[in-house]
Design brief:
2 copies of one chain form a homodimer. Chain A is α/β, with parallel strands linked by helices. The first copy, chain A, contains 12 helices and 9 strands. In chain A, the strands form 2 sheets. Chain A has a 6-stranded parallel beta sheet with strand order 3-2-1-4-5-6. In chain A, strands 7-8-9 form a 3-stranded mixed beta sheet, covered by helices on one side.
Chain lengths: 297, 297
């Protein structure tokens, strides 16, 4: 297959951006891949020979954008939005602009508002993949193998088709979904679990320090796999996730409010020693979660 | 090594009881191992040739107890407590009585209250191991390899020493801890995460059905690994966990109340679009959780 793009510019070389940039290079999806990121991610990517070139100086951005026929926004969502004015000035007329943000309405609305000349070149995308690791050290060229990538419908069929083929060439399956439905769905099944995991981790730290005098926070005596699994994603980047939560505020507030109702109900049942009520609620959850397991297998 | 016990009786052949019974047999820790459990767990254990014999008829219990020099209580905690009067009548004078319950004060207090003749023969134990599976199908003879088992101090040195050696022969490391400290610690790092996972799962089911019309509860479009990990333990037995929560009510209420404070704080920050506040809280959690990862490695 000939390369889909001549010069790809990936902004952000974290887990997703780094994996995408390295995958574009490895599979020959772009002839030349350039990365723009923080100095330590640039160093890590170049050491791994994953890209053709990479830089971290902001003043080099205009030239790199002007030279690219594919630009991927893979920074935290608020930073992606802050780069739109620069893109509007320097993006080529026929270049494809896409992103990998976990929220889709905030960035799509910002594109519509801030990009006049180049808005139609933007294809909103969200690969359902990741890691609790941060930065290029968590990147891997096979991260998207078998993953689903959500694309939002886009008026520019050519740009949409090229982004779809890019993800398929990386081994992913593409699903098309409106920005609004995407943000509602992932508020529930991704953003809420992250907020819950952060709150649970802070609770465990607070209580083990306060009640058990575990001021080193090292959780002696040992913890079981249940704690480790429920809080694994709380090791994720706080900056990234604060940005995602604020960018999906409305949908996430609905999810959080329902969760607070549910946990408060359980707290009330426990306070009343209502084993029957607790059991019924736990069994409803267990039955649903086992069905999800069956579906995933 | 000669067998530590002649006739072991394990009551309950779920993940923990089944693994223990099969391990006692496999490693020759007991000469003869008998199981008492629900019919389907008895069938599964006998099919796997994991035990010498097993039964599910309650009227056979007195004879089996009278014949055992080791009795292990491995049923949900409220069922273990309900068997104490029978044990008081039939347990041999020199037999060892132990358990595997996830709460220690409730069962130890019940033993002190209900057993007059045999209380000193009881060694409270809690292996930090398990599975989201239920029943003998989740059992495995190497479940305790490398695991920690918490034992509470016990006035009978001989009984304590035999239980310690039993767990060490199964590959576990023994830590000694008071019942009170055990229950406080595991309320925080185990019981709370379970309640949170149940509430999160019910929230996801409620919202995907109500807001997204996903009445099959099959979570289309796809969910990421974050959701699967945070809710994995919500597939656990509702009966077992309702019993554990009620048996550790006091400590768990303290944990739940702190968690509700933490999640409500995050909800308030999000409502106020306070990205800085969210980020500070998320970063505190992330830093702590990464330290836990380093300790586990």
């Amino acid at each position: 297959m000939p390369a889909l793009f001549k010069n790809a510019l990936v902004m952000g070389l974290g887990v997703i951006g780094g994996s995408l940039a390295a995958g574009l290079k490895k599979h020959g999806i772009a002839e030349r891949v350039t990365g723009y990121a923080l100095a330590n991610d640039v160093d890590a990517a170049l050491r791994a020979c994953a890209l053709d070139s990479a830089f971290s100086t902001e003043s080099d951005l205009p030239g790199a954008i002007a030279n690219a026929d594919l630009v991927v926004l893979a920074l935290p969502v608020h930073l992606c939005i802050s780069l739109l004015p620069t893109l509007e000035i320097y993006l080529q007329d026929n270049a494809v602009l896409t992103d990998v943000c976990s929220v889709k309405k905030a960035i799509s609305d910002a594109v519509t508002l801030q990009l006049v000349r180049t808005a139609a070149q933007f294809v909103p995308a969200h690969p359902i993949a990741g890691s609790h690791l941060s930065g290029f050290e968590g990147a891997s060229t096979d991260l998207f193998e078998g993953a689903t990538v959500i694309l939002a419908p886009c008026p520019n069929d050519v740009a949409f088709g090229r982004v779809r083929r890019m993800w398929e060439a990386l081994g992913a399956q593409v699903e098309v979904m409106s920005n609004e439905l995407h943000d509602e769905h992932y508020a529930i099944v991704s953003h809420l679990p992250h907020v819950v995991a952060f709150a649970l981790t802070n609770t465990v730290q607070t209580l083990t320090e306060k009640d058990l005098g575990d001021t080193c926070g090292l959780l002696t005596p040992p913890v079981g796999k249940g704690f480790l699994d429920t809080t694994r994603i709380a090791a994720s980047s706080g900056e990234l996730w604060a940005g995602i939560c604020v960018a999906n505020q409305q949908a996430l507030l609905i999810s959080l409010d329902e969760f607070i109702v549910q946990i408060s109900d359980l707290r009330r049942s426990l306070g009343q020693n209502d084993a029957t009520g607790l059991r019924a609620s736990f069994e409803r959850a267990s039955e649903f979660r086992q069905r999800v397991n069956l579906k995933q297998e």
